[in-house]
Amino acid sequence: MTFGYGRSGGFNLRWIIALVIAGVGLVTYFSRTQINPVTGEKQHISMTADQEKALGLQAAPKMAAQMGGWLDPKTSPAARAVAAVGQRLAERSEASKSPYTGNFHYFLLNDTATLNAFALPGGQIFITRALYDKLKTESELAGVLGHETGHVIGRHSAEQMAKGQLGQTLVVATGVGASGDRNGQMATIAAMMANQMLSLKYSRGDESEADAFGVKYMSQAGYDPRGILRVMQVLQEASKGGRQPEFMSSHPDPGNRLQRLEELIKQGFPNGIPSDLTEGNPLPPTGSGSAGTGNNPRSSDW
Question: Which of 101, 108, 156, 229 sits CB 3.0–4.6 Å from 79 for a disulfide?
């Protein structure tokens, strides 16, 4: 008996193996679900909150080193402001009910070249000097840090990691199945592109959800939510002239985000912003530094 390892038999065997690989990837992804303790959302995540915290703490020094290191709150008033506003958000908002309570840390990075802020899994949150220097009040800073806190609460990094693992598995499966075909290389490239576009789509959704978290958390912490609108105006100005189309971006267009945030604020405060929600204090300047030129900072689509 022969098993047909010729052109047709080999083709069938390759695709059988490919289907097995894809099936294992899909079963693994969809079987690993957790309920977000804050939002109640069912999410496909393969790590625990403690693993997220450990991963974030391990990665934080490396990420900071790539962006000029972080400024010491003991010697930098600006770094102290970042830490203070961040902790106020973490302690006075819904974020305090999360499994990351006590693990939130907020850092000012000594990078004057890139307008950016980001969150690592588990609660390590950063803002660059380039973006900080564009802000004027604590409410604007709270809008940025509230948004990044929302990424942590939403467990977006953990979700993206699980989706990325699934995507890579499907790309491998496609490559195995098409490896002997005349168009195999094109099929693999198409699968990789589809995986990338899927990730970008989900990332835009994460950004929109984090914007909503930002409005909620900064308001709960006592800040005027209109501060985040001014941040969007800063980003909109910085993105002029060199922005790629939104459908190819991991972030919603700043103009669209601004409109959506205005709607969220109106929904949350139909009778106007309460007088006890304030802009807070003016932000202290960062002073001079050695990282980057600081002349024409580039936007990284925060």
Answer: 108
Structure tokens of 8? Answer: 């047709």
Mean pLDDT, residues 224-245 taken together: 81
Place 46 in a pLDDT band, splitting at 50, 70 and 90. Answer: confident
The residue whose two tokens read 């050695």 is 290
Please enumerate in sequence order all residues whose Cβ is within 8 A of that of 75, keeping only pairs 6 or more positions apart, or say none. none
CB 213 within 8 A of CB 153: yes
CB 127 within 8 A of CB 117: yes
- CA 196 to chain centroid, in Å, comes to 16
Q: With bands split at pLDDT 50, 70 and 90, how would you rate the model's confidence at 4?
A: very low
Burial of 186 (0-12, 13-18, 19+ CB in 10 A): exposed
Q: What is the distance between the alpha carbons of residues 255 and 272, in angstroms, rounded to a whole number?
A: 22
> Which of 118, 218, 158, 124 minimizes the C-alpha distance to 36?
158
3-state secondary structure of 107: strand
Q: Which of 57, 108, 103 is nearest to 80 (CA)?
A: 108
